[in-house]
Amino acid sequence: MFSPAPCSQLPKIFNCISSNCSKVYSRFSASTSSFLERRGGSPSAYDRVLATQFGSYAAKLVEIEQYGVTVALVNNHVISNRLEDIAGKTRNIPEGCELLTVAKRMGISLG
Fold first, then answer.
1. Which of 67, 71, 66, 75 is nearest to 86 (CA)?
2. Residue from 40, 76, 70 nearest 55 by CA
3. Using one digit for the tens of pLDDT, what is the confidence trace for 24-54?
């Protein structure tokens, strides 16, 4: 896990982020709007804290010039995943999953 960047490094991080801003922003806004579209409503306190953790971790990745990755929460730790390892892959929900059973009973369409 990364430690937070010292304040003296912030200008360097912001310059690096702003130079890649259009790529970063377009990906971020697409995933953010998709998230809000699926979940609906305003973000909760948990959502805001998680977004801050993701943003901090992503900024650290930009600082060390590690591109082509995405951030995720795994076992309560923020990690990075190479896009090559996850893009285009499907993760199925096990058929016996209780939440899946409840969703089907409620008439929720899962595609």
1. 71
2. 70
3. 444 444 444 444 445 667 888 888 899 999 9
